[in-house]
Design a protein that fits this description.
Elements lengths: L1 H4 L14 H11 L5 E2 L33 H12 L10 E4 L2 H12 L5 E6 L4 H8 L3 E9 L4 E3 L1 H7 L4 E7 L11 H14 L2 E5 L21 E6 H4 L8 E6 L2 H18 L4 H5 L1 H6 L1 H23 L5 E3 L7 E6 L5 H12 L1 E2 L1 E2 L10 E5 L4 H18 L1
Parallel strand pairs: 1-12, 3-4, 3-6, 6-7, 7-8
Antiparallel strand pairs: 2-9, 4-5, 8-9, 10-11, 11-14, 13-14
Helix pairs in contact: 2-13, 4-5, 4-9, 12-14
């Protein structure tokens, strides 16, 4: 095995440790055991109805390679933001196959071998893997719990910045904590980035799904900002693989970044033409699926609060946006064991907190996107298990 390993990069673990919880989940599914899966994140499998108008003009046009993406597709993106009161230059938009590729392109442009990028913790682990694959070192800054919501820990962030740091990644609403940036946090981030000559990379894929607080876009004419988004969440269409990023900041940065990205994007030309051709239709009809998703999220959040609002063993912070909710179970000392027992005894699957970089054993994550009947029964079983059997 040592000889075989010599062929491969150390960036990819060739013998990853098998997760007992996920193995048990797979075993039950193979036996056709009904599972109340409270981690649904795929809208195409969550019982929503998609408008047929999206694909009315779908066709196979002539190939039109364009590093930034087709003009009509980028015009559709400008219109999407215009309806939100945000003016975007069509020249500053680059299309990709999704946020993963967008992040990969950004790191290719900004970082050399061994440079560092600051990522939020807790958070979704995707960007950690992408950074490592781009030979960039991920460094984590903390999000901290306050009375009602999670907030950025600026002291933690400032302590992580050094001469190798190239960018700060912000996910808003964050996955899974659901916090969105306040006006004060946006101003502080812009000042911090400008002072330290850093780029702010802002993932806004969940920005159409906020609850009570207004969503504020992080934009700047001074500090460099790169905004990521795509139709995976905007239109609930992850299978179509279409995203984009927007370059903003001072004119010198923006023009240099555009020139650099032209080279990177032209090397891959990864976005397929037919999807670009119907992007306008997709965004025009996104409101229908968004309405259904928001209704689901709101009802499930209300159900969760109704069941657990007065339970002393279970505490939670209300998300400001996104599809997830984080909760804690008082007295739990082994999160993996709790999840495994919940799965094998009650056939309910929830995420242990460590999957999102929580260090505490008593933290868990579920998705509010889960179909309501499954969500309600899964919560009932979770409550029974927590109150009476655990």
């Amino acid at each position: 095995m040592v000889f075989i390993m010599s062929y491969f990069s150390n960036k990819i673990p060739l013998n990853p440790e098998k997760n007992q919880l996920l193995m048990q989940l797979q075993s039950l599914k193979e036996k056709n055991v009904p599972i109340f899966d409270l981690t649904h994140s795929n809208p195409t499998l969550a019982g929503f109805e998609y408008p047929s108008e999206i694909f009315q003009n779908f066709q196979l046009p002539n190939y039109k390679p364009s590093p930034r993406g087709l003009v009509e597709a980028r015009e559709a993106i400008c219109e999407y933001y215009s309806q939100k009161g945000r003016i975007i230059s069509i020249d500053n938009i680059f299309l990709t196959t999704g946020s993963s590729e967008s992040m990969s392109f950004c790191l290719k442009m900004l970082c050399d071998f061994g440079d560092e990028v600051c990522l939020p913790s807790p958070g979704y682990p995707l960007y950690d893997y992408i950074a490592k694959l781009e030979n960039v070192k991920p460094i984590y800054y903390s999000l901290k719990k306050q009375e009602l919501h999670w907030r950025m820990d600026f002291q933690s962030l400032e302590n992580r910045i050094n001469h190798k740091t190239k960018a700060i990644v912000i996910v808003q609403p964050n996955n899974p904590t659901g916090n969105i940036l306040t006006k004060g946090e946006i101003e502080a981030l812009i000042e911090l980035a400008f002072k330290n000559k850093l780029v702010l990379i802002v993932d806004e894929v969940f920005s159409d799904y906020c609850y009570e607080n207004d969503f504020l876009h992080l934009t700047s004419n001074h500090a460099p900002v790169i905004t990521l988004n795509g139709i995976s969440k905007i239109a609930g269409l992850p299978q179509l693989k279409l995203g984009w990023f927007i370059l903003e900041g001072n004119q010198e940065f923006t023009q240099t970044a555009i020139d650099s990205m032209e080279t990177i994007a032209d090397t891959y030309l990864s976005v397929n033409t037919p999807i670009q051709m119907i992007l306008g239709q997709i965004l025009e009809n996104a409101g229908s699926i968004q309405m259904q998703i928001r209704d689901r999220l709101t009802k499930n959040l209300k159900r969760f609060k109704g069941l657990f609002g007065n339970q002393k063993r279970i505490t939670y912070h209300i998300p400001e946006g996104g599809w997830y909710i984080v909760f804690s179970i008082l007295g739990c000392i082994d999160g993996d064991e709790f999840c495994l027992n919940l799965l094998t005894q009650k056939f309910v699957f929830v995420y242990p907190g460590y999957m999102f970089d929580f260090m505490e054993e008593d933290i868990f994550v579920i998705s509010l996107l889960t179909p309501e009947i499954e969500f309600n029964e899964g919560l009932r079983r979770l409550m029974d298990f927590t109150m009476w059997e655990y």
